[in-house]
Every structure is written in structure tokens, then in C-alpha cells.
Amino acid sequence: MIASQPMSAESLNLSRAERKLMLGPWYHNFSPLGLETPQRGGIYPANQKCKQAILFALIEEALRLCRKRGGSLRGVELFCADGFYGMHAMRLGAESVRGIDLDKKELARARLAAKILGWGEKTAFEREDAFKLKGEYDFCICAGGLYHLEDPARLLSELARKIHGPMVVQTVVSLARTNPDYFETPAPGWTWGSRFSTGRLRDMVAKAGWDILQSTENELTGNDRPEDRGSVYLLCLPASFAKDTTP
Predict the structure, then answer these.
(1) Which end of the chain is more exposed for a tag (fewer CB within 10 A), N or C?
(2) DSSP letter (8 states) at residue 209
(3) pLDDT of 113 above 50
């Protein structure tokens, strides 16, 4: 159960190592899930505020679609960092969530948060490359990762074979270059990743075998450059998903 008042580090019976980890700074503020975490400054609070309500609603709808179809509710969160959005899915009744990332410290924070919130036995947070994803899942959360990749289209195609239900996507898109076919790698000003327009994203998703059910856009107010400021949110279904689950 989620506590009615957020828990703080001082109120928890943690080991010394866990207390040190708890004191942060964290990628996300977990207070909406019932846990006070000291969040990083700079862009992080503003960008979480921009993304959170939209992603929460899309994850809730993804689980509704899974329930409508019947069967299990086993999910995966790609590029999970501290597992914030996967744990929101647990809060909404997911059976299990597996989170993957490459950052060991973020994964350690995810495990700690899951333990404190009572989901330690139903979650797993492991170091794994998204292109080498193990297993198959009923739903997927892919928030924040596509623009880190040089070939996001390839990942979207591979996920269509491993995700048998809804996929929630959030990614940065360019507001500086908005032509439908815009794609650039590495991302402008970076030595890695990619940048693309909303139109190119939608094209990549469709060509990978996903149907877009919902699409929302806003701006990440924590980011200054127009190349980094656009944000797109999608709820997608693979072609194999039963058509009678659409709203």
C-alpha cells in the first residue's frame, strides 16, 4: 500500500549504505508514490513536472487496455533510471515490472525504492542494453531513451517482437528542425544519440509495426535549446494486439 504521507529517510529503518543512497540526489521526486527523495536540481524538477501527469495517464490507459484484453500484466521499463514510472505501474496494479538501464547507481536506487514501497519481490532492476532485451512482456514503458540512441528505429522494430501489448513512449524531439523527415545523428551539439522531428518519430513508429492510439506534445521547460525542448508522448499498440481493445 502507498503511505498516506510520504516517507522520509529519517523515518525508515535503513542500513548505512541504504541511507547514504537514499540521501541522493535522485533523478525523480518519488513523493507522488509515497516516498520523499531528494531530487537533483537544475533541469530535473521542471522536466518531471512537464512529463509526469501525461505519462501517468498513458500508463494507466496501457494497463486498462491490457486488462480489457485479459491475461497477465507483466511490464518492462526501458531506460528506467530509478524506476519511477515502472513503480507507478506497480501502484496501478501491474503484476510485475522489470526495469533495465546501464547506470548501476540509478538501478541501486530503483531497487531501494521498490524495497521501501513494498514491491521488491515483484520488480527487478537490472543492467542491460535495450537492444539485448531479454524476455517478452505485456506492456512497455519507454520514457526518455530513444533520443539517446543512434538508431531508435531499430529498437522500435525489435520491441514489436517482444512487447505483446501497449507501449508508452516519451522522447525529446527537435523544435529547431520540424520538417517531417528530419533525423540527425549524433544529436546537434552532442557526440552521441540522435535528434529527430515529431513527424520522423511517428514514421519510425509506424514502420516498426506500431499503431499510435494517442499522441501528445509539450515542451520541457527545464531545457533551454530548441533542439532539446520538444517532448512527444505516444501510446502505441503492436499489430498483433487484439483490435477490440481500442478505446
Answers:
(1) N
(2) T
(3) yes
DSSP lists the bridge partners of residue 127 as 101
Q: How far apart are CA 143 and CA 178, in angstroms?
A: 21
Where in the chain are the domains? Answer: 43-245
- d(Cα 246, Cα 242) in Å, to the nearest integer? 8
Q: What one-letter code names the amino acid at 146? A: L
Exposure b/e, 194-203, CB count within 10 A at least 16 = b: bbbbbebbbb
| C-alpha–C-alpha distance, residues 34 and 5, integer Å | 6
The three-point CA angle 157-85-170 to 5° equals 45
pLDDT for res 139: 98
With contact defined as beta carbons under 8 Å apart, do 78 and 145 qualify?
yes
Q: What is the pLDDT of residue 167?
A: 98
Asked if CATH classification 3.40.50.150 holds for the domain at 43-245, the reply, yes or no, is yes
Reported pTM: 0.93
* C-alpha separations of 73 from 83, 120, 169 in Å: 17, 17, 18
Average pLDDT, integer, range 183-208: 98
What is the mean pLDDT of the segment spanning 101-117? 97
Residue 59: other Cβ atoms inside 10 A = 25
